[in-house]
Input
Amino acid sequence: MKRTVIADALKRTDFGADVNVKGWVRTRRGNKNVSFIALNDGSTIHNIQIVVDNAKFGDEALKPVTTGACLSVTGKLVESMGKGQAVEVQAEAIEVYGTADPDTYPLQKKGHSMEFLREIAHLRPRTNTFGAVFRIRHHMSIAIHQYFHEHGFYYFHTPLITASDCEGAGQMFQVTTLDLKNPPRDEAGNIDYAQDFFGKQTSLTVSGQLEGELAATGLGAIYTFGPTFRAENSNTPRHLAEFWMIEPEVAFADLEDLMALEEDFIKYLVRWALDNCRDDLEFLNNMVDKGLIERLQQVVSTDFVRLPYTEGIRILEEAVAKGRKFEFPVYWGCDLASEHERYLVEEHFGRPVIMIDYPKEIKAFYMKQNADGKTVQGTDVLFPQIGEIIGGSVREENYDKLMARIDELHIPMKDMWWYLDTRRYGTCPHAGFGMGLERLLLFVTGMANIRDVIPFPRTPNNAEF
Ligand code: 4AD
Ligand code: MG
Output
């Protein structure tokens, strides 16, 4: 008999029909005469209840039906008399695809810690929480493509292997086929990358932006969406060494356009989650974070604050003067820590903040310089619980100004002639931003640690699975 996905079976009302469902046993309870099996196949957070007349199958046949076992169950779909479900299946035939020895299967009880589940990341998709998180991750990915498609952006694929450091932070993972024990050297004794695979030193990309700008200056509006790598040794609940970044880039956009895009984009995604991931959000709201759904609803219905950096510093300094303690010092020119960002968002304004006009010293070389000579048109979108969820900017489109900044920072431009060509030929005002998919997911799922919103996290000292 053809299999019915459990999400569909739970919606059916043609009671008395024969059905086949397949899935993994979440729990089995009951008594001498009857067993109740909660079966889940990942199509929904909800299990379907299988009712088994023990005598019909015999104890021996039912012995392998334990938590974690995989079953194919054929039987009658009936209206459930019990609480908590509308339909159930009265089992007529049970095939055990795979047993799960109760003595060794690690997912026995409910309420394992997130830390423990990270150690068994190969099994955690079988839990309610991670099922919900990964279904929402899928939905957010689809919504991202849908948003850009609806708004006239083209999906543009940028390379993962690159010879340029977009953010200039030197946090790159090197890609090489050289013999690390005995690399070729030039006359000065330095490693001779001319003999490496690509004929130059290469790394995994920290951002697709530079190539994205090339595309935007031809296609008008593009976005990238792919893996991004950062060798920053920061063991925080918000940093991964491998994450997924979405980077739109738009020709002819100014600061106002950029901020409007950032706000509209995030609201669209959060609304999508509220409209399409209701069951999973309700589960997470109950089990993980009681304020989750309310926070999501709040974000879609409030205007984001636009806040110049200088004004933000003034607010923080005022708070310090009134006795608010921060771990890191606040002064004009400092790079805000997430405690500062969260103070502004959660305590001072009570809604998301788009901070703009940062000191040029703390931002990347490509940001458009303001007339004051001190600040640049960078935008960070700051969110409750998360801090920075988006980083973006208007780009410096003036060749001479851009070169002056590059010289000031001693950025080696030998390999970036192609980037400068956008400013040399038909340069145009343009802007863009980057959003980490996992930062968005932290917000949308209410999960506390970024390691728990990506299937197999890559962090310092951790590349298991
Ligand atoms: O602020 P960032 O470094 O900006 C850029 O990379 C620009 N090139 C983007 C652009 O303008 N096209 O990174 C952008 C976003 C951050 O706001 C954050 O959401 C995410 O990427 N991000 C990380 N997420 C997880 N782990 C990390 N180590 C991250 N670093 C950045
Ligand atoms: Mg940033």
